[in-house]
Amino acid sequence: MLFQLLRHQLYFKNLSKQKQKEVMEKNGNNHKLRVCVATCNRADYSKLAPIMFGIKAEPQFFELDVVVLGSHLIDDYGNTYRMIEQDDFDIHTRLHTIVRGEDEAAMVESVGLALVKLPDVLNRLKPDIMIVHGDRFDALALATSAALMNIRILHIEGGEVSGTIDDSIRHAITKLAHYHVCCTRSAEQHLIAMCEDHDRILLAGCPSYDKLLSARNKDYMSIIRMWLGEDVKTRDYIVALQHPVTTDIKHSIKMFELTLDALISFKKRTLVLFPNVDAGSKEMVRVMRKKGIEHHPNFRAVKHVPFDQFIQLVAHAGCMIGNSSCGVREVGAFGTPVINLGTRQTGRETGENVLHVRDADTQDKILHALHLQFGKQYPCSKIYGDGNAVPRILKFLKSIDLKEPLQKKFCFPPVKDSISQDIDHILETQSALAVDLGGTNLRVAIVSMKGEIVKKYTQLNPKTYEDRLELILKMCIEAASEAVNVNCRILGVGISTGGRVNPREGIVLHSTKLIQEWSSVDLRTPISDALHLPVWVDNDGNCAALAERKFGHGKGIENFVTLITGTGIGGGIVHQHELIHGSSFCAAELGHIVVSLDGPECLCGSQGCIEAYASGIALQREAKKLHDEDLLLVEGMSMKKEEVVSAAHLIQAAKLGNTKADSILRTAGTALGLGVVNILHTMNPSLVILSGVLASHYVNAVKDVINQQALSSVKTVDVVVSNLADPALLGAASLVLDYTTRRIY
C-alpha cells in the first residue's frame, strides 16, 4: 500500500514538472516570467499582496521584483513599507516620489518625479510584465513609464466607475495596459465598451476577497481592544475613513467637518484613519486637530492599520463611515453597515449594506444616517469576488505569450459611414467583392451595401491549389475592373469557403473533402497584395449567419442559429449580436452533432452525424440504393440512361407517393430536428433559420421534433426558412460591409 502511494506521488510530481516545462517552453528557453509588482500605498498593497504571495509560491514559473514608492515611504502616513517587509517580501527598489504639499500642484510634481526616477529602475530590472493597480496618480506614472519602455502592463481593477479624478486616471491606465483583470461583470463590459480586446480581459474578482472570505480570526477581540480600548464590544464601535475629493476640495473638507461633528454627537467609540496623500489631505488633518479628535475620549486617530487587522475591525464594527472604496467594496463581504459620503464612489456597484449620503449641508443628515445604519447586520455580498481571484490571475499570467506583438490593438465598434463631399464618392455605391468557394463552383460577385448582387461571375472550381488561387485572382481582378463601370466603390474582399478557417489570420486551416488541396492556405495575403484591398475570410456556415444578421431574418435578433442544408450540413451561431468562432475556430460545426450512436457513416469519419442523414450527399446515397433496387421511380417520373441519381430524384419520388422515399426524408428531417433540439438546449437561441436547397423540405419535420422532444422552455423558438437567394455570397459581402471599420470581430 505504501509503495503504491509513493508511486502515485512520483507520477503526479513528474506530471507536474512536465506541465511546468511545457508552459516555460512556450516562452522560449525555459524562461520564467519576470513580474514587477509596484505598490504605492496601503490601499493598493491590500489588493496586490495576495497576488504577490501567489507569485512567490510558484518560483518555477515566476521571478518577483517588488518596487515600493509613493506614500508607503512617508512617516506621516505610517511608513507602510514595513508591512511589506513583515510579509517577508524582498523590496528591490524604494523610490521617494511624493512631493509634499498635499495640493493639486504637489500631485502633478509627484507624477513628474516618479517619471524621472522610474526609467532607471525599469532598465535595471527588465521585467516581462508590470502589475499596476487601480486609479492613483502614482499608478499613472508607473503605467506611463512601462508603456513607453515597451514593458507589458497588467492592470488590476480597470473598468470600474467612481467619482473624482480617479475615473480619468483609471481609464487612462486602461488605455496604456496590455492586459486587464477586472472584478465585476459590469467592469468587464465597460472595458469592452472602451474597445479593449476581450481576449485580454480576465474577470477574476477582487484579489483582496481571497483573504477577506477566509478571514475568520478567533482572536478578533484582542485586535479590537488594541485599537479601540479594553471596554469596547463588537458591533458597538465605528470605523471612519474619509479622503479628500480632488475635484472639489473645499466641499470635501466641509463634508469631513460635518462627519466629525455627527460622530461626536453620536457618542460611540470611533476609530478614525488619517486620509490619503491626495490634494486636500493636509486641510483634513487640520480639521481633525482643530476638533481635538486625537485627544477625544471617544476617538482613536491612527495613520495606518495592518490590513489583516483592519479586516477584523470592519468585520465586527457597528458601522463604517466615509468615502473610501473599501467601504463599498471589501466591507460588503461581512455585511457590515456602511455610510458612503459624497461623490467619491459615485457609480461603483454596491451591496444593500451601503447607505449613500450624496450631499450634506448639516450634520443632521449624517447623524440620521448613523441612527439608521449603526448596529445592523446585512447579508454578505460577493459582488466583487468569490475568493478565487488569485488562482485565476496566476493562470492568466502563465498564458501570456511573450512572442506575441507588444503593440496592443483596440476593438473599435462599427461606426456610421462618413459623408463625403466628393461628388464622385457620393454617386458611387459602396460595395464588396464576395467570393464563394463551393465544392463544385467558384463564384465572385459585386454586392452593394443594401445586399443587391450587382454582377456575378461563375466558374468551375479547379482541383488544384495553384489553379484555384490563380482563378480567384483572375475573377476578382475582372470584377474589380467591372465595378468602376457599374459605379461601385469596392471596400474589400470577403471570402466564404468550406472547412475550418482562422478569420483573424485569413487562413483556411482544414478543408472539407469536397474541396481538395485546401488546407493551411493563406488566402488573405496574395489576394490583398494583388488587389490592394483588405480581405476577410470565414467558414461558409458562419458567412450564412452573417448574411442573415445583416440582410435576413436575423436582422436585429440578439441570439439566433443558422443551419445550412445543402451538399453538406453547416451553420453559424450568433450570440449577443456577435458571431461565435470558438477557441480553435471550430464552433458551429452543427452538421457533426451526433444524433445516433449506430447511424450511417459520415464523411468526417464518425457515425450518426446529422450530415450523414440529412445532407444532399446522404439523400443522394439513399436515392442510389433505391434506384439500384428499382424502388426509386414511380409513375410520373423518368430518368435518362446517363442521368446521375441525385437528392432531387428522391424528393420528387416522395412527392409522387413513393413511401420508401418519403420514409427516408422523414428520417432525415427527424435527425435534423434532434440536432436542432440539442442546439436549443445548449445555446437557447430565440430563432432558428434553415437555409439552403433542402430547408423547405425539412422545416415542418424540425418543428414537429421540437414539439415532441424539446424542453417546454425552448419550444416557443421560431423556426423559419431563409428568404435570402444567395446567403454564401451575401455573407461573404457582410464580412466586408459590416467590418470595414473594425479590426477584429
From TrEMBL:
**Where does it sit, as one GO cellular component term?**
cytosol
Output the InterPro entries linked to this UniProt entry: ATPase_NBD, ROK, UDP-GlcNAc_Epase, UDP_GlcNAc_Epimerase_2_dom
The pathway is:
Amino-sugar metabolism; N-acetylneuraminate biosynthesis
The signal sequence is none
**Which GO biological process annotations does it have?**
UDP-N-acetylglucosamine metabolic process
Chain sites annotated for binding Zn(2+): 592, 602, 604, 609
Asked whether the UniProt record includes Nucleotide-binding among its keywords, one would answer: yes
Q: What is this protein called?
A: Bifunctional UDP-N-acetylglucosamine 2-epimerase/N-acetylmannosamine kinase
Species per Swiss-Prot/TrEMBL record: Otus sunia
